[in-house]
Design goal:
By secondary structure, the protein is mainly alpha-helical. It is 51% helix and 3% strand. Helix 1 packs antiparallel against helix 3, helix 1 packs parallel to helix 5 and helix 3 packs parallel to helix 4.
Amino acid sequence: MTWTAPRVVRVRGLGELGAVTERGMLEGWLTWHRETLLAKCAGLGPEALARATVEPSGLTLLGLVRHMAEVERSWFRRGFAGEDVGEVFTGPADGDEGLSGVRAADAERDFGVYRAEVEACDAAVAGRGLDETFTSSRGVALSLRWVYLVMIQEYARHNGHADFLRERTDGVTGDA
């Protein structure tokens, strides 16, 4: 049996985020967007996930999953937590952050790597305060709150790309 991207079961609905703490709201929105990206991929096999469907762009759903693993690691683990970890899918000089080099044969593995990276990022910031800061590579002090917000916008932007890619793949729309 051929592997397909698993169905996503939402942790909570967006309506549940209206009366929670600031931290709960930030974590909730980030989780929602993480789940949305995976929902855009759900039910597709490796070939469909690795196919560029909005020409002339080479962007793929699998590339977005790989890219977000890179972005998660960059902001949460390397930036905020100061962990000495390399790139997930790319070399230090390529600059594409996982978007290229996609191979259908690696889809199941790449999804596993993404999920493991999300868990590692959540662990890296567990118990840390939103006001805690780190110094970015550009010498700017940034807070954990800022990292959550930049990650939410990063997912929101790329989930818009995923909308088009999925619709062009098989006509499926929506974020469930």
